Amino acid sequence: MDLRISDDVVLAAEKLIAGHIVAFPTETVYGLGADASNPDAVRRVYDAKNRPHDHPLIVHVGSVDLVSQFAMNIPDIALSLAEKFWPGPLTLVLQKTDKVSDTVTGGQDTVAIRIPNHPVALSLLNKVGRGVVGPSANKFGRLSPTRVQDVAKEFNEEVSFILNGGPCHVGIESTIIGFEGDAPVVLRPGMITADQVSLATGRPVKLAGLDAPRVPGALPAHYAPRTKLMVLPRDELVVFYRDNLKQKKLGVVMLSPEPIELMDDNLISAPNDAASYATLLYKTLRSLDLMRLDLILVEAVPSESEWDGIRDRLTRAARGS
Ligand code: TXA
Ligand code: MG
Question: Which of 29, 45, 51, 91 to mutate to test the pocket of ligand 1 (most atoms within 8 A of CB)?
Fold first, then answer.
């Protein structure tokens, strides 16, 4: 089967409706799409990713009108969040309807739903007119792809059609919010912050934390490059770098402006605002991963909540590498 990278949204929609899998762009990362109402197609998505079948998928829809097919008893605070942040990098975990198959939810009684904010994704979803499952278009446990070429490298014959939408501008996966009674719970941090969720709902927000098993199959180590990765505060990183420079081939990611003494071929100067940092994060880690380094050193990011999603991915990358 030949791989086709295409701008043809109509063809992509036809393929999804016919039960094929199609990689598609969103503003966060590329997703691996299949018709959520077709369990065989959804199974092919799990298989293409080598993903455990109890690890549930996000259903993407093009408009709020479709949400009631998948979710019921939606809390008012979820409606406020949908109103405020959709389309956008926010996923809501809601009570599922009978229409949602266990293949999608891994047998849970909840379903994760999102309206992505990307013109190509919205056009695709509106042409399909159905829910489309969309896990990130990478092998299970690896870095999510933010460029069409990253998707193409990730798969062989498992994926034959990639809809091109250019580079993803958010760069890390959506914030996932669940609900415990009246309280929103951050199940996965992202670029929509806990503070923004709290402000939009008027409620304090619970944080599930790195070790809280969100769902069966949600592993603390995830989003990992192949090269070992360590996160260190700037001072410690500089000391470690000097001590290990002779023995090891090191890659370094530091927030700009970086200290002059570390100027080096393998030093990547990362933006010091969270949004730009997130846009480049996976692309940066992928390029370092290709350099046959012994170790990637990443400067710890600031403690403000706008960095929570980035800190979470870096911590998981360090654990998983
Ligand atoms: O930005 C994103 O969310 C991207 C783009 C493509 O939309 N998608 C994505 O999907 O990151 P995936 O499958 O890589 O991550 C989905 C996460 C998983 O960690 C899964 O555990 C969680 O969503 N999830 C899905 N359904 C859930 C549910 N019913 N309850 C709790 N967590 C759920
Ligand atoms: Mg993923």
Answer: 91
Q: Are strands 110-114 and 229-232 parallel, antiparallel or unpaired?
A: unpaired
Please report, for residues 22, 120, 185, 277, 308, the alpha-carbon distance to residue 165 in angstroms, rounded to integers and kept in the order given.
13, 6, 31, 20, 27
Residue 161, both tokens: 């059609």
- pLDDT above 90 as % of the chain: 84
* Token digits of residue 67: 């949400």
Nearest residue to 66 (alpha-carbon basis) of 104, 115, 17, 29: 115
Ligand 1 contact via 219 beta carbon (within 6 Å): no
E strand or H helix at 78, and its extent?
Answer: helix 76-85
The closest ligand to the CA of 92 turns out to be 1
Q: Is the peptide bond before 257 cis (omega within 30 degrees of 0)?
A: yes
- The verdict on the CB of residue 91 being under 6 Å from ligand 1 is yes
Q: By the 8 A CB rule, do 56 and 133 touch?
A: no
> Which pLDDT belongs to residue 216?
42
CA atoms within 13 A on the CB side of 206: 12
pLDDT at 213: 45
Amino acid 221: pLDDT:
56
Q: DSSP class of residue 136? A: B
pTM for the predicted model, two decimal places: 0.95
Mean pLDDT lowest among 57-61, 115-119, 152-156, 307-311: 152-156
Ligand lying closest to the C-alpha of residue 219: 1
The residue whose CB lies within 8 Å of the most ligand 1 atoms, and thus the one to mutate among 49, 102, 136, 210, is: 136
Ligand 2 center to residue 240 CA distance, Å? 31
Give yes or no for residue 117 CB within 6 A of ligand 1: no
Instruction: Calculate the CA 91 to chain-centre distance.
Output: 11
Q: Which atom of ligand 1 lies at the shortest distance from residue 58's CA?
A: 25
Instruction: Give the pLDDT mean for 182-192.
Output: 94
